[in-house]
Amino acid sequence: MTGSLPVLVTEPRSSPAAFGGGAIIGALGGLIGLGGAEFRLPLLIGTFRFAALQAVILNKAMSLVVVASASPFRAATVPFASVAAHWPIIVNLLAGSLLGAWLGAGWATRLASQTLYRVIAGLLLGIAVVLVLGHDTAATGAMLTGAAQLLAGVAAGFVIGIFAALLGVAGGELLIPTLVLLFGADIKLAGSLSLAVSLPTMLVGFVRYSRDRSFVVLGENRRFVLMMAAGSIFGSFIGARLLGFVPNAVLLPLLAIILVLSAGKVWTHK
Prior knowledge:
Structural class: mainly alpha
Number of helices: 12
Largest sheet: none
Number of domains: 1
Strand content: under 5%
Order of helices and strands: HHHHHHHHHHHH
Helix content: over 70%
Distance between the termini: 18 Å
């Protein structure tokens, strides 16, 4: 199987570096309301020297932790009852995202390593564009209604599910603009609805990845995973506290530049 990749290094990876890297990435994610997985993935590949598929699986594991912990943190601002009241939207997107996550994870395990590096690089470039153009989108009412909205929701969910599975991300950078533009959701509500869609979508991708023997990377790097996950949660908490001090007009273009540079490094990674 071309997707089952060997570990690129054999020496133990530094636990402090794992925690510190996770904290920095988590802070970046907390500042812009994302899990930070899109920044963590290039770090796993470039700095910690994981193979592409292993990095995606590790990224998904840590993204799952961050997404699960973010939901109760947000409940003080957006109560669970408000999220539950919009269950038709959640179901609409899940109808596509669950299938997309299953197929995307299956494709990732079959891609040759160099091909997967380039797919990752292309998706990182796409995130950079969405980050700048879509993250601050204001709700102006639903773009579509009725059957057209239903079909568009399934299609959008399908694409987002594939994207999330291939990169090991939660998909909030695409889900939030979709919820705002397609369904007319308020930006704060969209963030919580995004988490409600992301969690089961990521679990489906996880189940599919678990069928491939490269999934053992989690057991082989258990300490690394725990340290980076702890750092990610800590960093996202700090980043959320810094929110409001760094203007998006400065932050978002800077993060987009980081993603573009990361995409270049991943594209040329051997």
